[in-house]
Amino acid sequence: MSMDETHGGSMVSAILSSIVLLLLLGRTADAQRSLEFFDLLPEDPKLYDKMRPPKKDGQATIVYFHVTVMGLDSIDENSMTYAADIFFAQTWKDNRLRLPENMTSEYRLLEVDWLKNMWRPDSFFKNAKSVTFQTMTIPNHYLWLYKDKTILYMVKLTLKLSCAMNFLIYPHDTQECKLQMESLSHTTDEMIFQWDPDVPLVVDENIELPQLQLVKNYTADCTQVYSTGNFTCLEVVFVLKRRLGYYLFHTYVPTCLIVIMSWVSFWIKPEAAPARVTLGVTSLLTLSTQHAKSQASLPPVSYLKAVDAFMSVCTVFVFMALMEYCLVNIVLGDSDTPPKPASPPQPPSSSGTDAAKLDKIFDIATKKSTTGPPPGPTPAQRARMRALNIDRVSRVFFPFLFAVLNVTYWIMFAEYI
CATH assignment of 244-335+377-411? Predict the structure, then answer.
């Protein structure tokens, strides 16, 4: 082999090596190049309209929802609101997009800001009063693109939601608070919301509320027909049952003790008017304060609640105990007043004789000998006996009637305990 041929072969090898190296560097550069939004658009970007849902074969776009509830708190009966911390996920398929080149993984993380230039479901929380977007330590949301052109958008939110409450049988009530998600502008001809077929709803089992207990939760459909069309809607329903322990020890037991305390006056003698009147009035005022305290956290509703009925009947019992003493005082009358003092005897006349004195002594002896058995009880004694009998009857009648009231009340609401 000549020297020129050897040199020529070396040159060819060097050129081939350079070409291979340039190709490898080019591929590495392409692999390391960041993904741009225009890489996802069709080759003709005009074919992509972010205002139109990606309907396939004329069928409405299906958006799947998933909700993870991490907490429920701040339930306010007065304003009829509650707060919820949730992860909110939406999944839909957009066949108009292109997959990134060399996409080997199952999904790829996209810039969340790209949602401004993409079509996305126009869902909103129908019964939300305010929504807080979590930003610690970074904005708590992300966007995934799967190989089958499915897009997943998930965000963490804190919601303040309205909850229509009915307090007719308060505090034995059970409330249903909802989380509703509805389409803002797309009718069911263009878009339909559906729950995720695998895991539609996840609720943290460790949720604890001070006065309410989360006994049940479920998903439902709340699609409604408006004048502008039929708009798709989904909802989560939280069934909250009120815990009775707080009200049992802070409302019912103290109220019953106040009523029982008013009965102490039946054992106080009728003549002790200041003691009996003071006890009755004090019991009545204390019960009124207790009733007002039980209504402090509730809105001023126009219907009668169960606790109102119980407290009102207890107030009537205390009032009747006070009226019972009025009856006793009327029966007792004025017979307990001291009798009028007798007029002093006239001094004997100085002109009286011993014969007159003897006649007077004889008359007195005659009266004593002709007097019958001692007379019966005086009117004052009879009146006092009647007053005492009223107290004795009240000692049995009031507790018996109050016991009947309690048994009736708790039997009526036994199924709600």
Answer: 1.20.58.390
